[in-house]
Amino acid sequence: MNIIIAEVGGQGALLAARIIGHVAMEQGYTVKMSEVHGMSQRGGSVISYVRYGKEIFSPVVEKGSADFLLGLELLETARYIDYLRDGGTIICNNQRIAPMSVITGAQKYPESIIGDLSKLPLSLHVVDALNMAREAGNIKTVNSVILGCFARLSSIEYPIWETALKNSVPSRFLEINLKAFQSGYKALEDNAPAERN
């Protein structure tokens, strides 16, 4: 399984990657992870790779080979679309965070990202993760919302994911993150789990 998590720095992709890795290891898989920062750790483009399977030799997901692209911000999702394989799955937050080029007026934020993505040969799930995170009690739990969506589409049982959150999130933030995770999970509960090798 090859997974890309794209974010604006500080949105929590690394925590989401670690939780996915923990769940995969609990299932007996070999796991490799890596993270690449853009110009700035906070506010810049960040991409995390998670790969798991019987034998994994490299942590890097090659372009055109990702099974899942998890986007914590809309433009960052579009930025890494070439990593997704045909027939892959995108789960993305519809939140827009303007990059510096947009803030300075040098460029405009693209208006047609969701429409453009919907025309591609893939499965697309767009969620209002920012609002769901706000309802859970903290807008910084967008990562847990998207993680919940991914968990729902995975073939791994819910209690395993819940245990991974409990083992990965500091206790003072656990309740809010669990609420956010549950919100994302329920948002996609009408979708059958994706059976992937």
What keyword list fits this structure?
197 residues; alpha/beta; Pyruvate-ferredoxin Oxidoreductase, domain 3; six-stranded mixed beta sheet; 8 helices; 23% strand
The gist of it:
This protein has eight helices and six strands; from the N terminus they run E-H-E-E-E-H-E-H-H-E-H-H-H-H. It is an alpha/beta fold and 197 residues long.
**Beta-strand residue percentage:** 15-25%
Which range best describes the helical content: under 10%, 10-25%, 25-40%, 40-55%, 55-70% or over 70%? 25-40%
State Rg.
16 Å
- Provide the CATH architecture: 3-Layer(aba) Sandwich
Classify the fold: give the CATH topology.
Answer: Pyruvate-ferredoxin Oxidoreductase, domain 3
Output the CATH class name.
Alpha Beta
Distance between the termini: 7 Å
Low-confidence stretches: 192-197
Count of separate DSSP helical elements: 8
Mean pLDDT: 90
The biggest beta sheet reads: 6 strands, mixed
CATH superfamily: Pyruvate-ferredoxin oxidoreductase, PFOR, domain III
> Order of strands in the sheet with the most strands?
2-3-1-4-5-6
Q: Find the count of extended strands (DSSP E, 2+ residues).
A: 6
The helix-strand sequence is EHEEEHEHHEHHHH
Shape: globular
How many domains? The number is 1
Label the structural class.
Answer: alpha/beta
Description of the structure:
With 197 residues, the protein is α/β, with parallel strands linked by helices. It has a single domain (2-187), classed as 3-Layer(aba) Sandwich (Pyruvate-ferredoxin Oxidoreductase, domain 3). The chain is 40% helix and 23% strand. It contains eight helices and six strands, in the order βαβββαβααβαααα. The protein has helices at residues 13-26, 74-79, 100-103, 113-118, 129-136, 142-153, 158-168, 171-187; strands spanning 2-8, 30-37, 45-53, 66-71, 84-93, 123-127. Strands 2-3-1-4-5-6 form a six-stranded mixed beta sheet. A hairpin with a 7-residue loop joins strand 2 and strand 3. Helix 5 (129-136) crosses helix 6, helix 5 (129-136) crosses helix 8 (171-187) and helix 6 crosses helix 8 (171-187). The radius of gyration is 16 Å and the shape is globular. It starts with a strand and ends in a 10-residue tail after the last helix. 42% of the residues are buried.
